[in-house]
Amino acid sequence: MRRLLSITMFLGLAAFASLQLSAPVDGAAPERAVVDDTPLGEAMEEIETHIRTLRKSLKDPAQNEASLTAIVGLQSAVAKAKVEAPHMAEPMEGKAKADFVLAYRKAMIAFDRDLLTLEENVLDGDLETAMATYKGIRGREDKGHERFTSDE
Fold it and tell me: What is the dihedral angle through the alpha carbons of 110, 116, 118, 119, rounded to the nearest 10 degrees?
């Protein structure tokens, strides 16, 4: 019984140590795995990374350069994403597919337009308007996900 308890404790400590050794150094967050390794999936992952940066940086005028860098990164990721077709379009055919892809592309153009407005807001130092623009972008993003993605 004592030997079994010792082995159990050893295995528990070994598992704990392996978790600690695999933890990121310097308190850095672990990299998120890209679930969708298509060009669209990778572009969407970039978008999410830059959105998270903006959520923090837009609150602090000292972070305007970080905000501008994130906005340019977003614009680049949107440019990559808008030329791809959403996965929901794959089973569609003919006019239905063409209409769906066109609506997606137009939604991404509107997103890009909002990013230009956000960039101007930050360049002007108007962070109150920038936050309002950012919230609008998040709302548009949520609606886009509802329309152009599935739960699968």
Answer: 160
- For the chain, the domains span 37-148
**In terms of Cα–Cα distance, which of 37, 32, 101 is closest to 109?**
101
Q: Give SS3 for 82.
A: coil
Average pLDDT in the chain: 81
Q: At what angle do helices 94-123 and 64-81 cross, to 10 degrees?
A: 170
Query: What's the longest Cα–Cα distance across the chain?
Result: 72
| Yes or no: domain 37-148 corresponds to CATH 3.40.50.720 | no
Chain segment 103-135, per-residue pLDDT in tens: 999 999 999 999 999 999 999 999 999 999 999
Report which DSSP code applies to 30. P
Question: What is the value of pTM for the model shown?
Answer: 0.72
